[in-house]
C-alpha cells in the first residue's frame, strides 16, 4: 500500500518543476483576464465591459495553445465564443440554475458522485485548463469537493466495498489538470480493486494543451490493467489541429479508446455543416463521435441554448449527411434518470 499523500506529492512536484513542467508552465501562463484576451486577439474594446462582467462571475482562462487557433479580430469566431465572457452571463433566465444536474444530491462523499448503476465519478481536480462559458459546473462548489487524504481513503474504501461498481470516471474540473504523480497514485489504488474493469477519463486538456499528453501521463495510462476510455470534449472541427491529432495518437498508443462529447451551442456549432465537419474531423483524428448534448440549463449560459425542436431537426438533417458510425447521439441529462436521455 502506497502511503504518500497525493496532495503532498502534487505540491512537491509543482515546486520541483517535475516531469509535467512543460504543460504545467503552459497552464500557469494561461490568459486570465478579459483585457489581455481582447488585446491579444485585436478585438473591439467595446466588448470589454461585458467581458469583465462575465469574468466576475466565472473567470477567464485560455491557454496559449488554444488561443493560437482563434481567428484574430473576429468576435463571432466559434472558438472565441466558447471562452470570451459576455454581459449576457449576468442575466437571470427562468429555469437556468446553479446546479442543473442536482449533482450535490448524489455526492455520498466529498469528490464522489454516484448517480448511475455500476459506475461512479470522482472529482479528481477542481480546476480546468480552459474555462468554457457554458460549463454546467461553473457554479460547482469545488472547495467542498476537494477531498483530504483521509477522505480519499474513505472514497477508495467506498469503491472497494461496493462490488457492483465496475467503472470509475475521473472528472473535474479536468482530471488531467492534476499532476501525473497524483494520478499515477490514484490509478494504482484503483488498479488494485478487483471488481473495477474500466477507467474513464473525461478531459479537455489534450485538446486545449496537447503537450499534456506527455511521457509521464502515458506511463501511468499505459500501465494500468483497467480498460481505458478517454472522453474528449470538442465542439468544433477547428479545435483539432495537428498537435491535437498527435496527442490523440499517443493516447491510442497507450491503449485508450477515444470518444468525443460535444455540446450543441448557439452561435458555435448549431448548423448541419459545422456538425458534419466536426464528426468527419473527429474520425480523422481517431475519435468516435459519441454524444451531442443539449445544453444543461446552468445559470449564465442561457444565450447558448438551442431548443429541443431545433436540435432534433438539426440531427435529422445530419443523419442524411453522415454514415451511422459518425452520428453522435443527441442526449439530455435529466436529474434522477438512470442514464442520459436520448432526444
Ligand atoms: S473543460 Fe469541461 S469542466 Fe472545464 S470548464 Fe470546460 S466544460 Fe467545464
Main attributes of the structure:
binds iron/sulfur cluster, globular, TIM Barrel, alpha/beta, 343 residues, 9 strands, nine-stranded mixed β-sheet, disordered N terminus
Summarize the structure.
The chain has 343 residues and is α/β, with parallel strands linked by helices.
Give your account of this protein's structure:
The chain has 13 helices and nine strands. It is α/β, with parallel strands linked by helices and 343 residues long. It is 35% helix and 14% strand. It has a single domain, classed as TIM Barrel. It has a nine-stranded mixed sheet. The radius of gyration is 20 Å and the shape is globular. The longest helix has 14 residues, at 308-321. The chain has helices at residues 6-16, 21-28, 34-40, 48-57, 64-67, 80-83, 149-161, 180-191, 205-208, 215-223, 242-253, 272-284, 308-321, and strands at 112-116, 119-123, 167-171, 198-203, 227-233, 256-263, 288-293, 329-332, 341-342. Iron/sulfur cluster binds at residues 128, 130-132, 135, 137, 172-174, 204, 233.
User: Structural class of the helix and strand makeup?
Assistant: alpha/beta
Shape field:
globular
Number of helices: 13
CATH architecture assignment name: Alpha-Beta Barrel
Q: Averaging pLDDT over every residue, what do you get?
A: 91
In helices, the fraction of residues equals: 25-40%
**Number of strand segments:** 9
CATH level-3 fold name = TIM Barrel
| Distance between the first and last residues' Cα | 46 Å
CATH class group: Alpha Beta
The largest β sheet comes out as:
9 strands, mixed
Runs in which pLDDT lies below 50 for 5 or more consecutive residues are 1-19
Bound small molecules, deduplicated: iron/sulfur cluster
- In angstroms, what is the radius of gyration? 20 Å
Order of helices and strands: HHHHHHEEHEHEHHEHEHEHEE
Amino acid at each position: 500500500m502506497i502511503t504518500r499523500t497525493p496532495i503532498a506529492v502534487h505540491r512537491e512536484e509543482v515546486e520541483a518543476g517535475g516531469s509535467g513542467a512543460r504543460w504545467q508552465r503552459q497552464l500557469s501562463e494561461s490568459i486570465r483576464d478579459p483585457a489581455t484576451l481582447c488585446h491579444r486577439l485585436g478585438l473591439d474594446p467595446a466588448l470589454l465591459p461585458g467581458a469583465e462582467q462575465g469574468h466576475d462571475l466565472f473567470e477567464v482562462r485560455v491557454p496559449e495553445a488554444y488561443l493560437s487557433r482563434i481567428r484574430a479580430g473576429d468576435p463571432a469566431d466559434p472558438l472565441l465564443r466558447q471562452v470570451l465572457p459576455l454581459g449576457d452571463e449576468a442575466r437571470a433566465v427562468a429555469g437556468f440554475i446553479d446546479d442543473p444536474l442536482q449533482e450535490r444530491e448524489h455526492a455520498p462523499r466529498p469528490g464522489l458522485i454516484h448517480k448511475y448503476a455500476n459506475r461512479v465519478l470522482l472529482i479528481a481536480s477542481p480546476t480546468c485548463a480552459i474555462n468554457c462559458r457554458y460549463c454546467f459546473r461553473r457554479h460547482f462548489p469545488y472547495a467542498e469537493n476537494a477531498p483530504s487524504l483521509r477522505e480519499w481513503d474513505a472514497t477508495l474504501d467506498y469503491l472497494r466495498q461496493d462490488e457492483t461498481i465496475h467503472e470509475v470516471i475521473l472528472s473535474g474540473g479536468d482530471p488531467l489538470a492534476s499532476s501525473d504523480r497524483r494520478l499515477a497514485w490514484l490509478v494504482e489504488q484503483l488498479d488494485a480493486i478487483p471488481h473495477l474493469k474500466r477507467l474513464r477519463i473525461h478531459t479537455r486538456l489534450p485538446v486545449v494543451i496537447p503537450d499534456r499528453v506527455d511521457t509521464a501521463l502515458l506511463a501511468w495510462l499505459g500501465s494500468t490493467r483497467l480498460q481505458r476510455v478517454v472522453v474528449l470534449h470538442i465542439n468544433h472541427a477547428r479545435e483539432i489541429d495537428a498537435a491535437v491529432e498527435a496527442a490523440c495518437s499517443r493516447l491510442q498508443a497507450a491503449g485508450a479508446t477515444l470518444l468525443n462529447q460535444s455540446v450543441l451551442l448557439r452561435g458555435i456549432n448549431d448548423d448541419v455543416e459545422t456538425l458534419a465537419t466536426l464528426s468527419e474531423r473527429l474520425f480523422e483524428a481517431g475519435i468516435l463521435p459519441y454524444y451531442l448534448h443539449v445544453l444543461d440549463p446552468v445559470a449564465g449560459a442561457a444565450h447558448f441554448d438551442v431548443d429541443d425542436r431545433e436540435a432534433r431537426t438539426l440531427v435529422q438533417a445530419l443523419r442524411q449527411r453522415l454514415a451511422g458510425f459518425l452520428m453522435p447521439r443527441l442526449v439530455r441529462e435529466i436529474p434522477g434518470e438512470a442514464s442520459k436521455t436520448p432526444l
